[in-house]
Amino acid sequence: MLDEDELLSTLVLFLYDKTKNKGVINIVGDGVISINGEITIIDQNNIPHYLAYYLDDINDQEEFNAWYKKETAVYPVSKLTDITISTDGVLSFYPVKTPEKDKTEINPVDYLIKDEYLLHNKAMLGRKCKILYKKYQIQNADDLGIIRIIG
């Protein structure tokens, strides 16, 4: 009962069994994940094979399973200490004005995904985005969603 447009979005799904310290990340679309500090960029050149494109072709569970197996990137997770799942908006930062010559540069991906500044603040992402804009004169050009879990 979903509108097809609602299925034209990236899906980053993280399932985790805390008792076994194992899990899996499934991604349809573009995104960024970090497993214990190792960043992986999932890039399908903004033309991913969203489920909505195949609704007319999928008539039963078997056909869905075939699509899912072919179009979903799967990343197993074990011995979790730090995990981040993110939209590809974290890659979209650009300078709003020409930086001053002596201005310190920053890697926004590392700052938002790995850096522990403001870690226990519920508004961490918003605050860091404001810092990136005010202090470093960069901002994101695409939707940005980040979930980080430190075990």
How would you describe the overall organization of this protein?
- The longest helix has 11 residues, at 61-71.
- The chain has two domains: 4-85, no CATH class; 89-143, no CATH class.
- By secondary structure, the protein is α+β, with helices and mostly antiparallel strands.
- The chain has helices at 61-71, 108-113, 124-134, and strands spanning 11-17, 22-28, 31-35, 38-42, 73-78, 82-87, 93-95, 138-140, 146-150.
- The chain is 19% helix and 31% strand.
- The strands form three sheets. The chain has a four-stranded antiparallel sheet, with no helix packed on it. A three-stranded antiparallel sheet has the order 1-2-5, with helices on one face. A two-stranded antiparallel sheet has the order 7-8.
- The protein has three helices and nine strands.
Strand element count: 9
Termini, distance in Å? Answer: 36 Å
Largest sheet descriptor: 4 strands, antiparallel
Residue windows where pLDDT falls under 50 for at least 5 positions:
none
The number of helical runs is 3
Q: Spell the H/E element sequence.
A: EEEEHEEEHHEE
If strands are numbered along the chain, what order do they take across the biggest sheet? 4-3-6-9
Structure class: alpha+beta
Fraction in beta strands? 25-35%
Number of domains: 2
Principal-axis shape equals globular
